[in-house]
Each structure stands twice: as structure tokens, then as C-alpha cells.
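Progress note, project year one: complex with zinc ion.
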Amino acid sequence: MSDRELYCDTCEGVQPFEAPPCADGHGADCPELACTGCGAAVMVGTFAFPATQPAGRRHRAPRHRAA
Ligand SMILES: [Zn+2]
Ligand SMILES: [Zn+2]
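Model obtained:
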């Protein structure tokens, strides 16, 4: 099963997407999906990357001193 449902801007709705024939040799790892409704191809490879968060950023609550 390579089909997945994604929101398509062209179709203005959620459409089933399927992996198009890949000419780049990606095979099953091809990061592209094509809308079955309009044929628009989208890249979904970014979803496979691990979410990285900048280190060292912490929320610091403002301290209010009561006089
Ligand atoms: Zn590909
Ligand atoms: Zn579409």
C-alpha cells in the first residue's frame, strides 16, 4: 500500500495520492507522490526527516516581584 491521503491545493480537498512512476531510480523510497485527482506531484520526503529542534532554547518565565 503506497496510497495515502493528502490535502491537494489544486483539488481543494483531501485526495488519495499515489507514488508516480519514478524515473530517478528512487524505487520504493521515492519521495514523490502524485494526486490521483489532478495529477499534481508533491514531495513528501521531508516528512521522513527527523524533527530537529535548536538546542539551548528554553522558555524563561518572566519573574514578577511583588513589592
Ligand atoms: Zn523518485
Ligand atoms: Zn489534486
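The first strand starts at residue 4 and ends at 8.
Residues 8, 10-11, 15, 35, 37-38, 40 surround zinc ion (ligand 2) (CB under 6 Å).
No further modelling is planned for this target in the current period.
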